[in-house]
Specification:
The structure holds two protein chains of two kinds. Chain A contains 17 helices and four strands. By secondary structure, chain A is mostly helical. In chain A, the strands form two sheets. In chain A, strands 1-2 form a two-stranded antiparallel ribbon. In chain B, strands 1-4 form a two-stranded antiparallel ribbon. Classes of the chains: A mainly alpha, B mainly alpha.
Chain lengths: 437, 369
């Protein structure tokens, strides 16, 4: 209908870009959350986050697109059992145990029957029986899903998710134990350089194991495919996250030719009367947005409402104080790194379902582009990290409309960054806590 | 660090760069070797091939790298500011030198000076946005430089310095007062001269008022301000000079490799330079030398050997590995592990170990180390 224009571009394009930007911003928010959590827990700005995303995406692809061998599945199940078991026990091990005192209410000492011994144990560990039961139930359910997911052949997505979950947790724990823990109390510069070193190591490992090819996670592009593709390198796609493309039909045609299966169509919003064209929403963006926001909300709730989350926030606030009330600070740091590794893996998988797949030139850079979003939120605040992610997403997509894609990828977020640094160095919304000179 | 009992007895001695006779001996000896090495016949005596053209090239590129890392050392090692954009500033220098050599008749030395100043000004611009803050924020601003500068250079349309997608920009040979640099050997001497000049300049900066101000900012910026040091100005100066060094290195690189592409100045290269500096020893005059030597040795010899070894051994043990992929990731893996190991076990780098070794040699036979 009406050809409204906004600064030389049609109104439809602008609305499309803003919606795409918001959808992409959900993904950015998830990445930003991971960076913020590490910054609060370890006091490190994690330059290796992109490579953690990359590794997580590749592990997902490995389990999604290939048949894992039985021994590998066995190892995974063993590891998951250990992890979840220790997580359940960890609920009681947040603090060092209270000293053993003779308890008059139970009337039993160390050598009572089993039930009383469990009660005494829980009392020493300051465990609430009801909460413990809920935690064990959640853990058992999670474990069941993992085992079923790893064993069952039909549901490749669950299998991939289970593999990526365990694998990324292991990566996070190893990073914390091997590289971050020895640096406790060392200068900030050392920590920054260490995350760069971690990035190099992860890059080396992923390249040695998976090679330089892009691995496509074709959840949305080839849903009908019975045998997922074994990750051929993408030669046609340029290394940019193409959200807005005019020749979408042509691309779909290409995919149809090469893969031989149908491509799931974009979601459409009927806006023909209002804007002149329908709005198109890419499938992976919509799903990715909801998954990312869901993960974001889940982790925010976790930090706010669970005992472990509370303990982690206390640790982030002041490590010495947390240690002095008996919290196990090192355990908290390990848990934080494991959680962030999982978040990174989810972000990497979402990006991997898009057009470019888990590409070495796309995914690690993605995290660098999100740094301005984190800064916008002031490095501290989880809520504002989300807003920052959405803002950066919209800015990028609008830049694609008004300039071009490379400008959006390489310039726009960093121009925002420079502007923020010049105007309010402590973030637009952050607490004024930054060291100034 | 000098042994006890060695004193300066006059001002000339106290102000000199090389204070003791031992210093003089080593400087003259090493410089002499470096000057004479390329003159040595390529065949070598006793059948030992000392100087192959490849080795000469290696020395030349190491020299260029050394200049850039010396600048980084002034910034990270002495002022305590981190920069993730050194490669981008090198890129500015390289493109400036290339454009000057292609489009104008400006003499070579002047073109290097201009490209150094150009890089310095742009480095200052990105530094200024972060001078009010420190730590992560600083790293972020220089990271922005690493993205924005290549974008700007790649986006510029026109044949001035952008010959279309991915095409390297050819650079004519350097011409010093009518004396054209043609052979590898001449390039080597050219770079060696610049290395010596920049190293002496760095030493002079460090032992002067500026260097002392930088060190005080690094150690405690609040105390430095209390002492009356203009922290803002000296930080800005550090950024400027570090970028100037990068610009000189970039300009030399353009002339030596005789082509410039934007791909060779990636973020990865910036991080590699940081890694080299930290491994060599940030904040020590010898740090960059050790770092570059160590890195080049690893890059040139150990990686190849490790590649062959793991291609032979690993696929038998870990059957899922593809031998073709191993050389792709091995350099990164090795550099990452080495950097992490140095950060954990010896954050002061090889140069510090060297000092300990020197002290032990001096105290022999009573030394413990």
């Amino acid at each position: 209908m009406a050809e409204w224009e906004l600064f030389g571009q049609s109104f439809h394009l602008v609305v499309q870009a803003i919606i795409n930007g918001l959808l992409l911003g959900g993904l950015y928010a998830l990445i930003a959350l991971g960076i913020v959590v590490i910054n609060k827990a370890s006091g490190v700005f994690n330059f290796a986050h992109g490579w953690m995303m990359f590794a997580g995406g590749l592990i997902f692809w490995q389990f999604y697109a290939n048949e894992p061998s039985t021994s590998l599945v066995g190892i995974m199940i063993l590891v998951s059992t250990l992890l979840i078991g220790s997580a359940i026990l960890g609920l009681g091990f947040l603090r060092k145990p209270a000293p053993l005192v003779e308890d008059s209410t139970t009337g039993a000492s160390q050598n009572g029957d089993l039930f009383h011994r469990v009660l005494i144990f829980m009392k020493r560990r300051e465990l609430d029986p009801r909460r413990t039961a809920v935690a064990i139930a959640i853990g058992a359910a999670l474990w069941a899903v993992l085992v079923v997911g790893l064993l069952q052949d039909s549901s490749v997505i669950v299998r991939g998710a289970a593999g990526a979950f365990i694998g990324s947790i292991l990566i996070g724990l190893m990073i914390e134990r091997i590289t971050i823990r020895p640096l406790l109390g060392k200068p900030l510069l050392t920590a920054i350089l260490m995350t760069l070193a971690i990035g190099f190591v992860l890059q080396g490992f992923t390249q040695i194991i998976w090679g330089p090819n892009d691995r496509k996670i074709d959840v949305f592009t080839a849903e009908a495919a019975t045998s997922p593709s074994t990750g051929s390198s993408s030669s046609s796609s340029s290394y940019v996250v193409q959200i807005y493309t005019e020749d979408q039909g042509q691309r779909a045609q290409q995919t149809k030719d090469t893969v031989g299966t149908g491509t799931a169509p974009d979601y459409r919003i009927k806006t023909e009367e209002l804007l002149g064209k329908d709005l198109r929403l890419k499938r992976f963006l919509v799903w990715g947005f909801f998954i990312a926001i869901g993960t974001f909300v889940a982790f925010t709730l976790f930090f706010r409402y669970t005992t472990l989350g509370l303990a982690m926030r206390a640790t982030a606030e002041n490590q010495v104080l947390a240690e002095s009330v008996g919290l196990r600070v090192r355990l908290m740091l390990a848990v934080a790194w494991a959680i962030v590794a999982v978040m990174a893996a989810i972000a990497g998988i979402i990006q991997g379902t898009g057009g470019t797949g888990v590409a070495v030139l796309v995914v690690p850079i993605l995290a660098l582009r999100v740094f301005p979003a984190v800064l916008l939120g002031g490095l501290e605040s989880i809520t504002w990290a989300m807003v920052g992610g959405l803002v950066i997403g919209v800015v990028e997509q609008l830049t694609i409309v008004y300039l071009d894609t490379t400008a959006a990828q390489q310039m726009a977020p960093f121009v925002v960054l420079i502007i923020v640094l010049l105007i309010r160095p402590d973030g637009l919304f952050g607490q004024r806590r930054i060291d100034r000179v | 660090m000098r042994p006890s009992g060695v004193y300066d007895v006059n001002y000339v001695q106290a102000q000199s760069i090389l204070r003791t006779r031992v210093d003089w001996f080593w400087t003259v000896a090493i410089l002499g070797i470096l000057l004479l090495l390329p003159q040595y016949p390529m065949g070598g005596i006793l059948g030992i091939k000392l100087m192959s053209p490849q080795f000469l090239n290696l020395l030349t590129t190491s020299g260029i790298l050394l200049i850039s890392i010396t600048g980084l050392n002034l910034l990270l090692g002495y002022t305590g500011q981190i920069s993730l954009g050194q490669a981008a500033f090198m890129m500015v220098g390289a493109y400036t030198a290339a454009v000057i050599a292609r489009e104008t008749e400006v003499p070579f030395i002047l073109s290097i000076v201009i490209s150094a100043l150009m890089a310095g000004v742009i480095g200052l611009f990105f530094g200024l946005s972060s001078l009010r803050v420190k730590g992560f924020y600083l790293a972020m601003a220089t990271l922005a430089a690493q993205f924005i500068i290549p974008w700007a250079i790649n986006t510029y349309e026109g044949d001035w310095f952008n010959l279309g997608k991915g095409n390297p920009l050819p650079v004519p040979r350097a011409d010093i007062l009518g004396y054209e640099i043609t052979s590898n050997r001449q390039e080597y001497y050219l770079v060696l001269a610049f290395v010596v000049i920049t190293a002496i300049a760095a030493r002079n900066l460090i032992r002067s008022r500026v260097g002392r101000a930088w060190i005080s900012i690094r150690d405690n910026d609040l105390a430095a301000e209390q002492l009356g040091i203009n922290v803002f100005r000296y930080k800005a100066l550090a950024f400027f000079i570090s970028a100037v060094y990068a610009g000189i290195a970039g300009g030399l690189d353009a002339h030596v490799s005789r082509s410039v592409t934007s791909d060779s100045f990636s973020l990865e290269f910036s991080i590699e330079q940081l890694a080299m500096l930290v491994i060599g020893g940030a904040g020590f005059p010898l740090g960059p030398f050790f770092g570059v030597a160590f890195f080049k040795f690893i890059d040139r010899y150990v990686v190849d050997w490790l590649n062959e070894f793991s291609q032979d051994v690993l696929p038998d043990i870990l059957t899922f590995l593809n031998p073709d992929y191993i050389p792709v990731g091995m350099p990164h893996l090795l550099l990452g592990i080495l950097l992490a190991a140095f950060l954990i076990y010896e954050p002061r780098g090889i140069a510090f170990r060297w000092m300990i070794l020197q002290a032990a040699w001096r105290l022999r036979p009573f030394s413990k180390a």
